[in-house]
Amino acid sequence: QVQLKESGGGLVQAGASLRLSCAASGHTFRNYNMGWFRQAPGKEREFVGGITGSGGSTYYADSVKGRFTISRDNAKNTVYLQMNVLKPEDTAIYYCAGEFSIYTRTGTAYAREVAYWGQGTQVTVSS
After folding, report:
1. Chain centre distance of CA 43
2. Complete DSSP assignment for the chain
3. Nearest 5 degrees, angle CA 43-CA 16-CA 44?
4. For residue 114, what pLDDT is reported?
5. pLDDT tens digit string along 83-111?
6. Mean pLDDT across the chain, nearest whole number?
7. Rounded distance between C-alpha atoms, residue 94 and residue 59, angstroms
8. Average pLDDT of span 118-126
């Protein structure tokens, strides 16, 4: 059974940092894109960022570019999301995703066809 387990969420003040982790089990993702999505109350789930299987390329939503960094450790089957300079608008449930396609259009990155989802971890940023 494939599982993606997120950790590291919490309540922080604006300007602070958080690091999310996503540990995968039941499947090796080293050859697949992994990444993060988020869903704020009353809004649709949106792509935050992704990283290729080798870790050689990363893609980010325009709203988090320059503040968030995705990395992965294939030996641990784990992907990370380092979030800096957090803003209240970053408040959402953050979901880890495994095996999906990434494409870009006019410089903006998008993702589709996610095969695996984690349960999500809450990130709340107070002003």
Report:
1. 17
2. --EEEEE--EEEETT--EEEEEEEESS--TTS-EEEEEE-TTS--EEEEEE-TTS--EEE-TTTTTTEEEEEETTTTEEEEEE-S--GGG-EEEEEEES-EEEEETTEEEEE---EE---EEEEEE-
3. 10
4. 94
5. 999 999 999 999 999 999 999 999 899 99
6. 96
7. 16
8. 98
